[in-house]
Write a structure and sequence with these properties.
The complex is a heterodimer of chains A (about 375) and B (about 210). With about 375 residues, chain A is mostly helical. Chain A folds into two domains: about 180 residues, no CATH class; about 120 residues, no CATH class. Chain A is about 65% helix and about 0% strand. Chain A is built from 17 helices and no strands. Chain A is globular, with a radius of gyration of 23 Å. Chain B is mostly helical. Helices cover about 65% and strands about 0% of the residues of chain B. Chain B contains ten helices and two strands, in the order H-H-H-H-H-H-H-H-E-E-H-H. A two-stranded antiparallel ribbon of chain B has the order 1-2. The longest helix of chain B has about 30 residues. Chain B starts with a helix and ends in an 8-residue tail after the last helix. The model of chain B has no long low-confidence stretch (mean pLDDT about 85). The chains are: A mainly alpha (about 375), B mainly alpha (about 210). At the A-B interface, helix 7 and helix 8 of A face helix 10 of B.
């Protein structure tokens, strides 16, 4: 540790204004703050100090994401084994899957960080750490068979058009990882939906009899509710799906980390669940088809709901920031998810679109919450003044 | 052609471009640019309509009562659009089918009304005619650029001819479905504006 610090201190003057490599100052700064907590403090006004900064926050989110990554890797191997009748041990399944996820992660980080560094150099800004989390979120919400060039294209599109043109980390209107997924979903629907993309190597190969590779959501959309996996299987995640989304249990471990550290808002998570249960319950009351009659709580474990509610909807940049707004925002996501899933046959999964839509609405929700707050306080002040 | 007239013709190509600088006519730019051929035909139609309505209105400008000038302008534009529509139907029926309502909707294209109001009502016929052609071309250029990108990446063709070789498809390349959607046209127009503004700094608003 000490030698690393000394090395950085020795090289620092090179990158400071006037130094030989001052052009790359932001790159140097990015590595320095990644390795060591910066020691400068604010100079004016009174501030509440916390030992945790943006980079440390991001690190916690990545730790929260690890269970889904580990489980997702294992599940790739497990599903592939199921499809082709191969017996593997837990470790073998995990290694099989991890080797499939790793290239996607490398491409996503390589392209995203590359663009971040280039933009930071052009603008002369510090390199922002926002991509640390996005870079791991993108692989987790992709199907395992996704071609790497598509990952690269989608990442580039999301970082440039989802974030950098709005001004970089902290200014994006919509969740960057979801923009990457939405881009692929609309640009290459053949690689992002259907029954063949969720299990490694299923397209073009003949699986064992009785294995279809369809997700529970796909069965539900076809009104084949008897085919949907059991609640236990869906909760634990033994189902086909995007890499990180299948296991609700793994997501819940992540949620516990986020809530315990105070980084993810439990209000948004709870409100999303409540909204889903309400809308699912209404559909249960008036079941016009089989899909509407499946129990409302099944929506909580199908598809990307849990992953989206915990890791996507709570993104502090794109979610509502007022406390009341968080409830409305989460609740609306929950309602929209069920609406899109049940009433729009073209989109079996509604979580991505629901969150993106509410991302756009979040500032408006905040605006009205603040307005009503001001009005209420103004009223109180006036009554007191009269008396 | 005098230098002043030439400037009038060439200005709308870039610094006074109706689509990327004045942000007019965006709607049709998104709607007809999926394929290159309809975009070219649409561009030509708009050139003709802008040029000739500018000419006619400029001839009539001194006798139009100001209160009803919008109605008069609309009548002239509508006549031109119907003429263009009939010609398209007679000679390029398939393209006319593809453009469907958008030929008729040239009437509502803000570029045309904008030029009539801003230029033809106060200038002589010949400069008005040139101004109309210039603005029409400015619009057509953007349409063609957007349509080229969209058809090339969305369908792998240009003017219906296969451009992306089969070997590339065999290697795993897939046409981008997003390019077919109007969303991507809007993003492409945005990118053109972005490039234009970072290249010609005088277009940037002063802070």
């Amino acid at each position: 540790m000490k030698s690393l610090r000394n090395f950085l201190d020795k090289k620092k003057p090179l990158f400071q204004p006037g130094g030989k490599l001052s052009k790359f100052g932001s790159t140097f700064g990015a590595f320095e703050t990644f390795l060591f907590t910066p020691n400068h403090t604010s100079k004016s006004g009174s501030h509440i100090h916390d030992t945790i900064d943006l980079k440390r926050t991001m690190t916690v989110v990545i730790i929260a994401l690890l269970p889904t990554l580990l489980f997702g890797s294992w599940n790739i191997g497990y599903q592939n084994g199921l499809a082709f009748g191969v017996e593997r041990s837990i470790i073998e399944n995990f290694i099989f899957g991890f080797l499939k996820v790793l290239p996607i992660m490398i491409v996503s980080y390589g392209v995203g960080l590359g663009i971040e560094f280039i933009v930071a150099q052009i603008r002369g800004h510090e390199v922002n750490e926002g991509f640390l989390v996005t870079g791991i979120l993108i692989p987790l919400i992709m199907p395992v068979n996704i071609p790497l060039w598509m990952v690269a294209l989608a990442t580039a599109f999301a970082v440039i058009f989802g974030k950098e043109i709005f001004g970089g980390t902290g200014y994006n209107v919509m969740n960057v990882a979801l923009i990457a997924r939405a881009f692929l979903f609309f640009a290459y629907p053949g690689e992002m939906s259907g029954d063949l993309v969720w299990v490694y190597d299923l397209a073009g190969n003949k699986p064992v009899d009785g294995f279809s590779g369809a997700t529970p959501l796909a069965y539900a959309a076809q009104n084949a509710s008897s085919e949907i996996a059991s609640f236990k299987d869906m909760f634990l995640g033994f189902i086909p799906g995007s890499i990180g989304e299948t296991s609700t249990l793994a997501v819940l471990i992540g949620a516990a980390v986020l809530i315990f550290t105070g980084i993810g808002s439990w209000k948004i998570m709870l409100a999303t669940v409540l909204g889903t249960l309400l809308m699912g319950g209404i559909c249960n009351l008036f079941p016009a088809n089989e899909y509407m009659s499946i129990p409302a709580y099944t929506h909580l474990v199908m598809g990307g709901f849990a992953f989206g509610a915990v890791f996507m909807a709570t993104d502090p940049v794109t979610a509502s920031s007022t406390e009341k707004g968080k409830w409305i925002y989460g609740f609306m996501i929950g309602i929209l998810v069920v609406l899109i899933r049940i009433f729009n046959p073209a989109y079996p999964e509604g979580m991505m679109l629901a969150i993106l839509l509410m991302n756009v609405w979040a500032p408006l929700i905040d605006y009205f919450v603040i307005e009503s707050h001001i009005k209420r306080r103004l009223k109180r002040a006036k009554i007191k003044g009269n008396a | 052609m005098s230098g002043k007239n030439f400037k009038m013709l060439s200005n709308p190509f870039n610094l006074q471009n109706p689509v990327t600088v004045q942000i007019l006519g965006i709607c049709s730019a998104l709607a007809v640019t999926v394929k290159l051929k309809p975009a070219i035909v649409m561009g030509l139609s708009v050139i003709v309509v802008t040029a000739f309505s500018n000419l006619v209105i400029s001839w009539m400008r001194n006798s139009i009562p100001p209160r009803i000038r919008i109605i008069v302008q609309l009548v002239v534009v509508a006549t031109m659009v119907i003429l263009v529509d009939q010609v398209l139907r007679a000679f390029v029926y398939d393209v006319s089918k593809q453009l469907s309502v958008y030929v008729g909707l040239i009437i509502t294209n803000c570029i045309i009304m904008g030029r009539l109001e801003a230029f033809a009502m106060g200038n002589k016929p010949w400069p008005s005619f040139i101004d109309g052609i210039g603005n029409g071309i400015g619009y057509a250029v953007i349409l063609i650029v957007v349509a080229t990108v969209r058809e090339l990446f969305g369908s792998g063709t240009l003017l219906g001819f296969k451009i992306v070789p089969q070997a590339v498809y065999d290697a795993g390349y897939i046409n981008n479905g997003m390019m077919i959607m109007p969303t991507m046209a809007l993003i492409l127009v945005g990118v053109i504006i972005w490039i234009q503004r970072s290249y010609f700094k005088q277009l940037n608003e002063k802070e």
